[in-house]
């Protein structure tokens, strides 16, 4: 099963989500038979399957898998905070895809609360939730709140990720964007520009999706910043 999981991750990382999805379905069926549908292995498979559906933009299908996962967690191991947090993280992503920003924020904040209780040290899961909250607040036109989340995400990523990593670059770009919207300082526009360049150079499926997100912000007083991209 580990070999199949690794191959699915490899497909997903190289923007071959449809191939990854087929493997996720196979792993899900096998874990359901071998481990049982009340096992943590099965829930993990459901979450991975839902995550791939989210990458494909299939929010409704992802929500069905997440609802099943949440029900199993609540009935079989409600004390497993990690699973509760992860389900809510993915529910936040599906709500965000459907532009239900209020629901997305509620789920994200719940996931953040659980991850912060699990991990005392700077970690990628907490930072990823903060980055998602940044996007939710930007699209909800709450720039001040988005700036706060962006700074927190950037601070954590700076402590745990190498320079040039796409997550670090994305958080830096959002920090520059939100600060520029609030203060109109050229230094913030330059921070956005530098991190957009880092995103482009880092390549990969996740980085490419991040570039699309950042370029969508071009018509916000930052046309000159984006002119060379």
What does this protein structure show overall?
It is a single chain. With 229 residues, the chain is mainly alpha-helical. It has a domain at 119-229: Serine Threonine Protein Phosphatase 5, Tetratricopeptide repeat, CATH 1.25.40. The chain has twelve helices and no strands. It has helices spanning 2-13, 17-34, 40-55, 59-76, 81-97, 101-118, 124-139, 143-160, 166-183, 186-202, 205-215, 223-226. Helix 9 (166-183) packs antiparallel against helix 10. The protein is globular, with a radius of gyration of 18 Å. The mean pLDDT is 89.
Form type: globular
Question: What kind of sheet is the major sheet?
Answer: none
Mean pLDDT: 89
The CATH topology of the domain at 119-229 is: Serine Threonine Protein Phosphatase 5, Tetratricopeptide repeat
**Span between termini:** 42 Å
- Separate helix tally: 12
Helix- and strand-based class? mainly alpha
CATH class of the domain at 119-229: Mainly Alpha
Q: Report the sheet-strand fraction.
A: under 5%
Cα-based radius of gyration, to the nearest Å? 18 Å
CATH architecture of the domain at 119-229: Alpha Horseshoe
Oligomer: single chain
Helix content percent band: over 70%
Order of helices and strands: HHHHHHHHHHHH
Number of strands: 0
State the low-pLDDT regions, or none.
Answer: none
């Amino acid at each position: 099963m580990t070999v199949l999981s690794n191959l699915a991750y490899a497909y997903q990382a190289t923007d071959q989500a449809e191939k990854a999805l087929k493997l996720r379905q196979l792993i899900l069926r096998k874990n359901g038979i071998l481990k049982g549908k009340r096992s943590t292995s099965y829930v993990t498979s459901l979450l991975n399957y839902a995550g791939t559906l989210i990458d494909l933009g299939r929010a409704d299908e992802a929500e069905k898998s997440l609802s099943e996962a949440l029900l199993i967690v609540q009935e079989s191991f409600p004390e497993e905070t990690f699973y509760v947090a992860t389900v809510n993280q993915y529910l936040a992503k599906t709500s965000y895809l459907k532009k239900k920003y209020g629901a997305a924020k509620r789920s994200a904040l719940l996931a953040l609360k659980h991850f912060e209780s699990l991990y005392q040290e700077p970690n990628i899961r907490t930072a990823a939730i903060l980055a998602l909250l940044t996007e939710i607040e930007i699209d909800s036109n709450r720039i001040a709140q988005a700036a706060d989340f962006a700074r927190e995400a950037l601070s954590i990523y700076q402590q745990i990720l190498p320079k040039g990593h796409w997550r670090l670059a994305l958080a830096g770009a959002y920090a520059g964007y939100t600060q520029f919207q609030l203060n109109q300082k050229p230094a913030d526009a330059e921070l956005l520009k530098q991190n957009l360049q880092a995103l482009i150079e880092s390549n990969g499926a996740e980085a490419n999706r991040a570039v699309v997100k950042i370029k969508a912000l071009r018509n916000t007083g930052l046309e000159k910043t984006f002119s060379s991209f």
